[in-house]
Amino acid sequence: MKYTEEYQIEFKDCDENRRLKLPALVDLMMQVSEHQLSQGGAGTDDLVKRGLGWVVTQYHFEISDLPKPGDQVILSTEASGYNRFFEYRDFGVSTADGKPLVTVKSQWVMLDLKKRHMVPADTKMMEDWGALLLKKMPRFPRLRARDNYEHIRPYRARYDDLDTNHHVTNSHYFSWFVDMLDRNFLKEHIVTAIDIKFDKEVHYGESINSCMDLVQDDIVTTYHVIEAEDGTVKAVCELSWRKI
């Protein structure tokens, strides 16, 4: 069951190059899914009453272009399937006349907010959304942290970085990734694909290191990891870029 809504891109959503910022893109994805889930009694407020929350574990993005301020876009989302523990959700951003700009596949779990562990998928909820029970898990790229990274920068998880699951919201990781890149690089390149896997939560006040390598072959790729001070991997990400 696909859900769509119209949205006008605002200046606050965009960077100095007038392109939609990656954290803002993810926030819009969360907004449209929250609107759909709330209509079916599975939104944030509904789940918090049950001591539960949605947590993303992996994303795969394909990006042909990023909208600019004033652009009218169509945001879309649908639950594409589930199995015992995972729920799969697709997202899209397209132009007003239907041209795809961004397509996203994602994998989610339901988290017990008190015990901080995942719980089995709610079968009735999935059936109500028309999501299919999957016999095989959809394949996402296998991401692993590299042995060494050339660029490392420390950060601290702030209060404003948290969401209602009481950990750093997934969109903020993209701020940590993008901040590692040179300003001129960001003026001259646009991201075309993103793969990210979230391994561990980042909590309030926690100090982390954002690490990056940039590799320029036929395709420019940046390799990222978010690590705790003791080296525990929190998230691994790969971004592909093209020159404008």
From TrEMBL:
Organism of origin is: Lactobacillus crispatus
What is the protein's given name?
Answer: Acyl-[acyl-carrier-protein] thioesterase
User: Which residue range or ranges hold the Acyl-ACP thioesterase-like C-terminal domain?
Assistant: 149-243
Which residue ranges does the record assign to the Acyl-ACP thioesterase N-terminal hotdog domain? 2-120
What CDD domains does this protein's entry cite?
4HBT (cd00586)
Q: Which UniProt keywords apply?
A: Fatty acid biosynthesis, Fatty acid metabolism, Hydrolase, Lipid biosynthesis, Lipid metabolism, Transit peptide
Give one Pfam family: Acyl-ACP_TE
Its family remark reads: Belongs to the acyl-ACP thioesterase family.
Q: Does the keyword Lipid metabolism apply?
A: yes
Q: Provide the GO MF annotations for this entry.
A: acyl carrier activity; fatty acyl-[ACP] hydrolase activity
Among PANTHER family, the record links this protein to: OLEOYL-ACYL CARRIER PROTEIN THIOESTERASE 1, CHLOROPLASTIC
* Gene3D superfamilies per the UniProt record, alphabetical: Hotdog Thioesterase
